[in-house]
Amino acid sequence: MTPPVTLALVGAGYRGTGYAAWAAATGKARIVAVAEPRPHQRQQAAIDHEIPPEHVFNDWRELAAQPKLADAVIIATQDALHVEPATTFAELGYHIMWPPRRPTANASSGPWRRPA
Fold this sequence. Notes:
The protein is of the alpha/beta class and 116 residues long. It has helices at 14-25, 39-48, 60-64, 83-91; strands at 5-10, 29-35, 56-57, 72-75, 95-97. It has a five-stranded parallel β-sheet with strand order 3-2-1-4-5, with helices on both faces.
């Protein structure tokens, strides 16, 4: 049996916790780190996934500054804030799960452009 994929969660709001719960429920993934600015959501994600305190961060930049902690990262920040963490974690060698729900006002610029 192959070991579960390890995931870091960036954004522990409604969307992020939903994707994290779904991934963990498959038995094929394990949430090993969380970055979330809101204390209650951050702590709840840590409790739900048994994340050790040293892998719980106030900001995604703090997580990115660590040695690589996971195979992949779920980018579940607000839609307008996806690009910077996605780019940073990709450059660090993480696989990216980036589930945007709607295009943002600046979706026509930057590295992820909608087709014309």
